[in-house]
Each structure stands twice: as structure tokens, then as C-alpha cells.
């Protein structure tokens, strides 16, 4: 591990040296110019008193609806050692992020998100999530496109409820709005190196500064990895980890206050070994069919936390993109913004069967995804009676999938699957998806009185989605080329009242329709005919009443709300047991309702205390033809479907809460030191769309502790930190899925990890 870290640091420093030299030279010229100007102009000294605000607070969009939102500053992420999107749920209550590998991530907020679940079967490319992820105002069609993690983040905002008016059709469940730091005209550079148990490593190098009088640049290089916490007893390999290498370069052009242009390009290359372990097997009618079939094939059964595999999973992902954001300050205070982007994503998996003998291997769905977008937005001047924004967004996507399931050319597949027809079989699936969406939008705030604001907005998403699915060699199927067209409206209305200084209350209502889908699966048409290949848009209505207060001179910040969300034509999974195929369907409706509250305390300059909680009662109000759980399908005379109406929504913990505290002080020699602690807990939830008791995820809590110190060194600052994540070694599952014959497989959560971080900032 030491050699890998040294090599990475060496490469990072070499890449940064030319840029640092240019930055230093340009900085010297800038200092000479500033000194000359200072000798000619007398500057009066001005003292400003006020409440300190973070970068995130300064970036608030005045046209953004004042509904529930959690903001996390990038510096706070670094202090709390949070570097991945999945770890974000340990800081923000109400959000649930479930991931088994970078190509498979589901996000839900208040129980609204990825209804499909994708528990098994063909990877279905016809349905996006209803929680939208944005990076620097660019929509990411899949959360896995956030490959470089949360490094060099300026701030993150998690928005709850339907957000389709400002963020588009696929934001009916909420939004993760992520912003990175822009190039600076003040020279700066940093290197951060973290190392921990089980091969944990994270290296980030950054350099930024002026490249001319009106041009600045920023370069980030990142490497991360870990060996994983699963051991293959046959080979000794550590699995369920991976490595990622990437970089992001930016250029910022400024013409005074009249024009700015920010150009960005990023690239990431990752290799991962996602590996579930066998959690349990179940007997039906006095017989454990899973153990019996493994024994018939001559396999060895090993229960977690380790595995016995003759072949291992590997996923290789290459992705990146470019974007350009231009901002003009027009006459009369109007602002025009243009955001243009192009992104690509390629995933190449080689997945095995999870057994000690070969049933199938080198399988999985290869994905090639390209997306592009163009947004224009005009902002009216602020400070008047009416603030408003008008805009037009275009989104395009083209995705291709090639999937294989390659069974061994031996008798073993037949012994395990009870059919000799699997011998030497290669089941091939080809899928294509073409998506185009054009959407005008408008949103504004009417300042009725100094105490009362009315915010209203509307958007119309005009979408054409088309694609096809072809399956060979088993249950042959050809969907033909399918096309669907929809106009998806979104709207919001919010009243904000400030009854006293420091107090604010609001009442909000919103409506949105999530993109329709194409059922790119053989199972659907065989189950319900060709019409079942078209998935209707999901309709979301939400309401919220909340209040916030800033007390004791800003040392106490309180926030709370009650919410209600109803989703109609819920997009989720069905299952054809004859063909063993998962397919998409519209499944009635669900309701999410609850209350959330948060508090931030800064009683002294030394203390920072945060706490937040969300109670969410999410349940199906109409889900009459749901996929049945294995405990039903494997019992005698199972029904073709099950009724989950009134049952809880999967991936929706009823209670989530988190708390953190930090104490800092300045000691001898000017050393600035701190200690901090955080704790996050979530209650139990169903882990699969069928609400199976076998895949129920137990509630768990994670505690982490950090201590560090730092000071001045030459022209910069150094810091050293020791940290321990999951300090009490809580055993938990990130995900559980049902397998063959009543077996259950799961992806383990990260065990206790002790590590250290060294950083230098110039």
C-alpha cells in the first residue's frame, strides 16, 4: 500500500509542477500590478460587523423555493472524513443511498426514489430514478457518474419533495445538488493523503491560480481504493473493494463582472470487485433446496462473511465529460446563464455465479451511455417587487446494452438448475434507448410585503423516448422499435411569512410527473402483452409546512416541517416466474408522510453541534399485483401475484437521525487542534421490492470519531488527523437480495476502520 501511495503522490506532484510554476510567475506579476495601483489610490479602512456566512449560504438562489433542504459545506465533509456519496446519508437524515457497485446505486428521499429496485434479472434501462443528481448544474443520468466521489466539493444541497419546476422531470422525489470549487485568482494548492486498514487509501492533489489577468485554472487529481472486507477462502483474494483514478481540470475566464466562462473536463477509470456473501438459506416442506442443489453440483457452501468462489466478479468503468457554463450580466441587472454538457459512461462487467463450482461465469450487462444537455436561463434583477427566472432545457441520451449469461459446457448447470437445456447456453440480450426532452420553465417570487413572499413556478417537459430489446437463445423475444411521447407538467406554489426577525414560516405545494419508461424486458410482453412495454409517467403531489428560526445572535438555528407526498402510477417491478424475468410496471400508488427537525448550536467559537431527524411513514396505498416474496412463491400452490397495499415501501426507513459535535482550540505554538464525533442511525427497512422477510435490513447505528491538529508551515498550513469509522464495529448490511431456492445474499457494510490523514494546503 505504501508503494502505491508514494507512486500516486509522485504522479500528482509531477503533473502539478508546470502549473505551479506558471501560477507562481503569474501571481508575482499580479502582486507587482497591485502594488503599483496601491501607490496611486488611497483606500479607506472599513470595518464590517455581521454574522459569519459560509460559501454555501452565499450561493443561495433567491428563486429557489424555501422548502426542506440540507446544506453540507465541503470543508465540513473533509473534517468529518466523508468522501463518497453513500456516506452522505450519515450526515443528512431522510436520504437512503443503497449501492453494491458504481454501476448500481439507488437513491431515495423520504421513501421516494428508485421504485424498480433492480433486485435481479435483466438490467432494465428504461426507467430513471426520481431523485435527480446534479453536478455543477449538469444533470447526471445515473448516480454512478459521480465517479470522483465528493472531493473538492464546495457545497451540497439535498432538496426534498417534488422539485421538477427548477430541476426537470426526473426530480419528483428530490434533488442532490452538488457544486465543486471553481478556479481561483489567488494561488492555492493542496495535497491530502489518507490511509487506513484493509488497504484503504485516498489521495487528492489540487492546484489552482491565475493563468493571466483574466484567466484562472484548477486541476484536481484523485485516487481512492480499498481491498474490501470479503476474503475468498480458495484464493486468499480480498474482495468487495476496488480502485479509482481520475482527474478534473477547469478554466475560468472573467471579463470583470460582465461575463464569466467556466470550462470543465473530467475523466475517471475504476476497477471493482463487488462480492455478495451467502447470508442464509431456507427450508420449504422440510427440505433446503439450495443446499441440496449445491451438493448435487459438487459445490461447497460457505456462509458470510467470507466466500469460496472458483470465479470472481470484476467491473471496469470508464467515464468522463465536458461542460461549459457562461454567465452574462446584462443591462438593467438581468443575468443570462448558459450550461452546455456532454458525458459518457462505459461499464464492462464480468460477473460470476457466487458458487464454488462453475454454473455460469463472465456474465453481466455492458453499458454504453452518452448524455448531453443545454440549458438557458434568464434571471431578472433582484431587490424589486418581483424576482423571476425563465429558461429552456434540452436533454438527450443514447444508451446501448449488451448482456450475456454464459453457462458452463458441462453437466453442472443442469444439476443445479434441474434442466439439461442450460448446458453451454449463452443467453444474449441487446437493448437500446434513445431519449430526447425539451422543457421550458419559469419561476418567480412576488414580495407582497416585507414579511410575505409568494413563490410560483411551472415547467412543461416534452419528451420522446424510444428503444428496443432483443433476446436470443432462451425465451427469444424482439420488441421491435418502440416509441412513446409525453408532455410532463410540473408546478409549485409556496407562501413564505417572516413574523419576526430571525423567524420564517412557509407552506408549499408541488406537482410533478416523472419520465415514462420502456419495458426493455422479455418478461413483460409475455405476461401482459405488447402494451405492457410502455410505462406511464409517475405522478407526484407533495405538500409541506415548515418553520425556521435563528436565535441567540445566530448561535442557535432551528428548522422543522411536516410533509405529505402521494405518488400515483408508481413505477416498480413485476416478475414472471415462468421465464424468471423481472419487468417494469405501473403499480398503483404510495404515500409518504412525516415530520423532520434539525438544530445547529454554536454556543462558543470552540463548539459546533448539529442534530437532525426524520420520521417517515411510507406505505403503499394501492399495490394489488406485486411481486411475491420467496416465502410465498416457494410454498405450495403460490398465487401469481401478491397484494402489498397497506405495506411499507421498501428502502424507506421509518426513522433516521444523526448528530455530530466538534470542539476545537488553539494550543502552544499556535497549533489548532480539534476532536469530533458523529453518530447516524436508521431503523429497519425492507431491502427488496417484494417486501420479503428474508431481505429485511435490520436497523443499525454508526459512530465515528476524529482528532487532529495543524499549524503554519512555510507559506501554507499542515494538518494531521486520526479517525475511526464505525468505531463500535456495528455489523450491518448495505443490501440483501433473494437468490435461488430460498437463499439470501448480501453486501456487507464497512467494518471498523482506523486510519490517518495528512494534508498540506498552500
From TrEMBL:
Tell me which UniProt keywords the record has, alphabetically: Cell outer membrane, Ion transport, Iron, Iron transport, Membrane, Receptor, Signal, TonB box, Transmembrane, Transmembrane beta strand, Transport
Return the SUPFAM superfamilies for the record.
Porins (SSF56935)
Could you name the Gene Ontology cellular component terms for this entry?
cell outer membrane
Q: Where is the signal peptide?
A: 1-30
Write down the membrane topology.
Answer: Multi-pass membrane protein
Q: Which GO terms describe its biological process?
A: iron ion transport
Q: Where is the TonB-dependent receptor plug domain?
A: 62-175
Pfam families with a match to the protein in the record: Plug (PF07715)
- Spell out the subcellular localization from the entry: Cell outer membrane
Q: Which family does it belong to?
A: Belongs to the TonB-dependent receptor family.
Would you tell me the protein name for this molecule? TonB-dependent receptor
